[in-house]
Write a structure and sequence with these properties.
This protein is 40% helix and 6% strand. The chain is mainly alpha-helical. A three-stranded antiparallel beta sheet has the order 1-2-3. The radius of gyration is 18 Å and the shape is globular.
């Protein structure tokens, strides 16, 4: 859940994320193509910066790790070898999806809603261009059309009392 909400990672990106993608000194995750994961497009590659407490959370997890992947699983990584949908850590994803549905997210892909919320939070604080960059989209238009919702609605105009 933290990878989707605090870092905006897609389910497959989280499933195949290696600990080597973390730079704890710079407080970031470098999303790059690996031997196990091919990017959807070149703009999908990028750096996601983490809040200090999120980085500390992952650093603690790193110290307790038992393998190379962030999401632990006994299943081998083979998404790069098969033509069907395959996840290394389906149990963790299924538990998360069930929890999200029980807590009101009734969409077909509940973990994607966490990524959308990540994009919306970045948008509200820094604007659409930064949200697009953080989500690693090819254009701002993709971000705006699929990922952003805002509690604040821009209203054009001037204060009437300033018109004299």
């Amino acid at each position: 859940m933290v990878l989707a909400l605090a870092a905006g990672l897609l389910r497959t990106e989280a499933d195949l994320l290696l600990w080597t993608a973390f730079d704890f000194k710079e407080r970031c995750i470098r999303v790059e193509q690996s031997q196990f994961y091919g990017l959807k497009s070149m703009p999908s590659e990028g750096t996601v910066y983490l809040q200090p407490e999120v980085c500390s959370f992952f650093e603690d997890c790193f110290k307790k790790r038992t393998g190379d992947f962030v999401l632990e699983s006994k299943r081998p990584p083979k998404r790069h070898l098969v033509t069907y949908v395959y996840y290394r850590a389906p149990k963790a994803q299924n538990v998360l999806n069930r929890w999200l549905r029980e807590n009101g997210i009734d969409r077909p892909r509940p973990t994607l809603e966490l990524r959308k919320e990540f994009g919306s939070l970045i948008n509200e604080r820094y604007g659409g261009c930064e949200a697009s960059r953080a989500l690693r989209h090819s254009t701002v238009k993709v971000t705006e059309s699929h990922y952003l919702h805002s509690k604040f609605k821009p209203i054009a105009g001037v204060a009437l009392d300033s018109l004299g």
